[in-house]
Amino acid sequence: MLVNPGPGTEADIATPPLAVSLDQFLAGIGTRAFRFAEAGLRSRDDALDAVQDAMMKMLAYGDRPAAEWTPLFWSILRRKIVDVQRRQRFRLRWLRPVAEGEDEASLDWADAAAHGPSRSHEQRETYARLVRALRGLPARQREAFTLRVLEELDVADTARAMGCSEGSVKTHLSRAREALQKQLEEFR
Q1: pTM for the model
Q2: What are 32-45's pLDDT values in tens digits?
Q3: d(CA 104, CA 56)
């Protein structure tokens, strides 16, 4: 016979902080994860779905140590993005013509109230150029750059998230930086 311990027991005290911490982790990573997914999927709706699915799957790993959450989440999200990309390529390939000039910057991440209109426009243009440049990179280079530079993961965590060796991360990152430097050189 199972006995339900009363409130204030060790079982009640130990369980909630883990869930709250995981909730805080997911709340803190949501916007960055969305940007990462949107850059890879080029669709706001698909990106939202991928991030939501990754977060739902991450809930099953709440018992893991908090130090493992970051690379684990990025790995889950990356795999989900690859799945969606494969599905997109497979389905409707023959129905949709390749559209040039897709909406490059569907979101405005700048705070328009903090600066004047010209500054807001300049920030939108800068973000749009960066998104175009990132989308022009091969997927592995884009992932390495985003995780290492924008998300500031270390090499080991990036390698775990990408499912490759640390040397591969360094190679992909080097090539990504070189390609981005060439693409954004005129912008300087």
Answers
A1: 0.54
A2: 999 999 988 888 99
A3: 28
